[in-house]
Structure formats: structure tokens, C-alpha cells
Amino acid sequence: MSESIFVTVPEHVAIIMDGNGRWAKQRGLPRTMGHRKGVEAVRETVRAAGAAGIKYLTLFAFSSENWRRPEAEVSDLLGLLKAFIRRDLAELHRQNVRIKVIGDRHSLRSDILGLLLEAEETTKDNTSLTLVIAFNYGSRDEIARAVVSLARDVEAGRLRAQDITPALINARLDTAGIPDPDLIIRTSGEERLSNFLLWQAAYSEFIFLPEYWPDFSPEIFRSALETFASRDRRFGGLSSQAAAVGT
């Protein structure tokens, strides 16, 4: 993977891939065609992230709320996930990409869960880009599961309630060991998180793009990274300019 051309490269970029259905509707195509085109955008984005020097790329692939969609569409989405892993796993492994899956695994079908576990196991020792796939993921559910885990420790006497800290909560989340996203991108013109990485997004930068996900190209990605590089991240403190004036 080539060296990054950006002065300030986000360590972790998270993307809400939105607009597949609307992309298809604009073209008089079935929604399934939008999802299939979206998979192509995923492949290009993974390559572009690696080339830019990004270490973590999180993609919101399937939310815990997506099960409410029509059964045929859910079936197609699951089929695309399975096809993506079967077709692309070997190539991602060759590119030294590590795959990490976040989300509730307990209710997943055995065939889907097996593929996700295989992808994680096959790539666990890779050291380049970490591709985090948020599948059957909802941030409130993730936080609730973390709280239940801590409550059980308190109940069992392994932990005192007054000793619970943000760091302890963070360690019980699905993203434990993964840095918070520096940048969150959402496509399709919508400007909300939709139950995605609510805890982890405390100090993230946000970029909302009008393009639908199937149209998300490496060029659009690079433009978003340039916008990120131009921002002054303060994390509750002074801007770098203000700090320099005060010295």
C-alpha cells in the first residue's frame, strides 16, 4: 500500500454507508442493485483507506434495526455479506488487512456467524489496515451489554460500583482495543448518527456528504480526508492557534 499524501491522516475513519436504495430508485432499478453497487464501493474504499495510511476503517454494514426491512431485502443483504467474505477474504488477507466484527453475535444464524468468525480468525495476525465490520450493530445495545457485564461483576463482588469509570465501560464495548474514530463520514445527505458509535464519537469530526454510497469514490474519499486535515481538533482545550498566541 502506498504512502499517505496527507499531512494529517486520521487513524480511524468510520463510515455510515447510506443511500443504496435511493441510488437504485433514481435509476429505476430494484433496491438490490443499489446494494450490489454499494459492495463495489466498499472494495474501492478499503483500498483507498490502506493507500492513505489509515489504520482502522469501520463500516456500518448492517444495523440491529435493519432486520425490520422486508424479508427479501434482508435476505439479499445477508447474501451480499456472505459473497463479499467468500470472494474478498483471500485478497484482504494478501493485503495484510485484519478483519474485526462488532455487534451482537448471539442471535445470528450459524452460517453468517461462522463466516464472520472465519474472517476474523484468518486475518487475526495481519498488521496493516484493520477493517471493522459493524454487523447486527446498534450502539445503544452495545452500551447496554457493557453495562450488564459490569453490573454482573458488581453483583458478584468482583467490582465496586464506585470504581466504574469511563475506561472500564470502554473496555467492555465491542470496540475495546480500537481507538475512537477521528472522522465519521455519512453519505446520502442525511446528518445523523443513527445509533452508530454513540460512545466512541465523543470527539469525532463529522462529514456529511450528498452522494449516495454507490457513488462514493476514492476521489470523494480523498476530498473528505483533505477536509479533515484542515480542521483544528481541540478536544475541549484551546485551538492550536489560540494556544500559540497565549504562550
From TrEMBL:
Coiled coil region boundaries: none
Cellular component terms per the entry's GO annotation: cytosol
Taxonomic superkingdom: Bacteria
Entry keyword set: Magnesium, Metal-binding, Transferase
Active site (UniProt): D18, N66 (proton acceptor)
EC number from the UniProt entry: 2.5.1.-
One Pfam family cited in the UniProt record for this chain: Prenyltransf
Entry function: Catalyzes the condensation of isopentenyl diphosphate (IPP) with allylic pyrophosphates generating different type of terpenoids.
Protein name: Isoprenyl transferase
Taxonomic path: Bacteria, Pseudomonadati, Pseudomonadota, Alphaproteobacteria, Hyphomicrobiales
